[in-house]
Specification:
124 residues, mainly alpha
Amino acid sequence: MTTVNQTAPSPAADAPAEAPAEASVSAPADAPAVLAEISGMLRTMLDEYGLDDIEVTMETRFTEDLELESIDLVTLAGSLEARYGRQVNFAEFVADLELDEIIDLTVGQLVEYVVRCLRAARER
């Protein structure tokens, strides 16, 4: 079995069924904390496939490294909305990408997007 490196517990497991309209006040706006949270979400998904030793870093690619399929990205989008609210819209994020960019999408690109969204929400 494999293990996803995670530095903080995943709040996604305890996330409410309905997404909040606004980002959580306690949502981190720095890359290391967001990486830890997204790693936790991914760990939950990968555990279902019996994969628990894959290291998740900023350079980890969703398709090639984690072997996630489009349905897995839909699941991840739901986890992101449950954790961060509507401020983080994964569908909007990937809508601006070409197919080859989506295939090569890294965890780091998603982390940077989430951080930008959370900072923008706090500035409002």
